[in-house]
Design a protein that fits this description.
single chain; 296 residues; alpha/beta; OB fold (Dihydrolipoamide Acetyltransferase, E2P); Rossmann fold; 3 domains; 6-stranded mixed β-sheet; 5-stranded mixed β-barrel; 13 strands; 26% helix; globular
């Protein structure tokens, strides 16, 4: 029987597909090429022991990373990116910037969640580190996931009726957040792991979890924050994908200004005046040079 489905997990040449009745079934890909990711809407048919994916429907977006060797796709058809960091351990602003640039390149909205708001002094330090982001359009929401308390209503409202891709470094509280919002998450990941024959659940598998009984709001969990490559982005695109630089990058003396060394650069003038964060500008320069070097 041919029917529509939603890919909720992938591993190797296998995928877990959820049909309209809410049941999840193990499916294989037709042919040799694996082009299916979590969040894909597919057409599949049942077989005696599992199912076969016949077609992947057109995507609204695709969130992925890339380096010089390969491209890693995470999820498709997502509504927003949640970058989860914490007051402790300290996080890399560069990794936050990389994630936001990649989201912007696919026109996917994003916001930042800062966990461990109860660690007052460390939270103040971390919030200071992120103080420029709200003015760029990136909402910054505090979280306290310690103990057994509920996740704030402000945060859960931000997830309602959306497919949210959540990413963050180790120790930020991603697993705690998912287990808090999805009470059966551990049981579900166990079932998925057995279905995918992966032996045990590891963070190498991207997984979609519904957070409501109506299946209208979901979290997609995936690894990949530590090494988030941007090799698919041209160096000349970077300033257009960073809102604070984009606001000024058309006023420079030279139309192809790199904002690194040319005279009459408006962006550098805004850095000198404190309008553009010095730390973000430093990251921009590092990324520009890295991406330029990878082209040769």
């Amino acid at each position: 029987m041919i029917q529509d489905g939603l890919v909720t997990a992938t591993h190797g040449r296998h995928a877990v597909v959820e049909s309209s009745d809410g049941l999840r079934r193990l499916c294989h890909f037709r042919g040799k090429k694996n082009e299916v990711v979590v969040g894909d809407h597919v057409v599949w048919r049942t077989t005696e022991d599992a199912g076969i994916i016949e077609e992947v429907k057109a995507r609204r977006n695709l969130f992925y990373r890339s380096d010089e060797l390969r491209t890693k796709s995470f999820a498709a058809n997502i509504d927003q990116i949640v970058v989860l960091v914490a007051s402790d351990p300290d996080f890399s602003e560069e990794q936050v910037v990389r994630a936001l640039i990649s989201a912007n390149s696919q026109n996917i909205p994003a916001f930042i969640a800062l966990n461990k708001a109860d660690l007052t002094d460390l939270f103040v330090r971390a919030k200071e580190k992120l103080k420029h982001y709200p003015s760029m359009g990136y909402e910054l929401l505090p979280l306290t996931l310690n103990g057994e308390g509920a996740v704030s209503q402000e945060f859960t409202d931000r997830l309602t009726n959306k497919i949210s891709f959540i990413m963050g470094p180790s120790g930020a509280g991603k697993s705690t957040l998912i287990n808090r919002l999805v009470p059966n998450a551990q049981a579900l990941t166990g079932e998925i792991s057995r279905a995918l024959q992966s032996g045990k659940h590891t963070t190498t598998a991207t997984t979609l979890y519904w957070t409501d009984s109506h299946r209208t709001s979901a979290l997609i969990d995936s690894p990949g924050f530590q090494e988030f490559g941007l090799n698919h982005i041209e160096p000349s695109q970077l300033a257009h994908l960073m809102p604070d630089l984009k606001a000024f990058n058309t006023g420079c003396k030279f139309y192809n200004c790199t904002h690194l060394h040319e005279p009459g650069c408006v962006v550098r003038a805004q850095v000198d005046s404190g309008i553009i964060s010095a730390s973000r500008y430093k990251i921009y320069g590092q990324l520009f040079n890295q991406l330029s070097a990878s082209r040769y």
